[in-house]
Amino acid sequence: MGRDQLECPNIGNSDLSSASARILAGENTRVIKRSGESEEYDPSKTMTAIIRSGSSANEAEDILAKLEPNLYDGITTEEIYRRVRALLNEHSAIRYGLKKAILALGPEGRNFETLIYRLFQAMGYEAKVRQTIQGKCITHEIDVIMEKADKRYMAECKFHNSLSLKCAIQTALYTYGRFLDVDAACDLQCPYLVTNTRFTSEVTKYADCVCMSLIGWKYPENGGLETLIEQYRLYPITMLDLRKTEIRMLLDKDMVLISDLFEKRDEVIRSLGRDTAQRTFRAAEALGFGGQ
Questions:
Q1: pTM of the complete model
Q2: Which residue among 21, 184, 230, 256 is least enclosed by CB atoms within 10 Å?
Q3: How far is CA 7 from CA 3, 35, 218, 224, in A?
Q4: Domain match, 87 and 113 both
């Protein structure tokens, strides 16, 4: 199965040429990534992230103009993230934090599995999450089972608790091995491997070879996890400004998406109290949810 099912519109990168042409006041400014590696500061990357958050190209340029004079050699990506978020308006700041919001669904992978299950539903699949399936040889716990046009699929969800970790070849091999056993008993199409971070080059090469569909951060191009979440508006509740205990309380009641809060409004009020619940609804409405 090809990857055409994962294609979706390109999001706001047509106005990046001006950002790419910007020259930082202090040349050769290097940025320290979460992995500890360093790279030259690239304003187009920051510009892309700001536009993805919902800001216009002009607003993004203004934010860069305020940000760049305060950058220094050896600044971390984490510090740049904090500074940009402080410059964004409330609505855009929430969306800018999507990657961390997904991370906050942990530490276990259960809530991420639910998010991906809801994603496949939004993509038009009939889906079930956390299913026990008998393969030819052994029984398997499959994260997501999907069906579309009389064809069945399976998805393995690999959740990482650190953004610096990449989905490695061992996970791809494990996923495909599991697929082969289940396929022998259930006649599946090519499997999906979904992660909240990035894939190593070995994984993408292997997936191309064995016909495994990948969904990860910014992969495939123009159809990565962040793009699909934005396209289908599947924002997790961890994007909202709530205490960890409040987030955990809602997640324990299987409210993973912001849209869930409005579908279970009375339960949210009972769980959080009326004042906190109303503040939560207002923050959600800032992202275009609810509105009543």
A1: 0.76
A2: 21
A3: 7, 29, 12, 9
A4: no
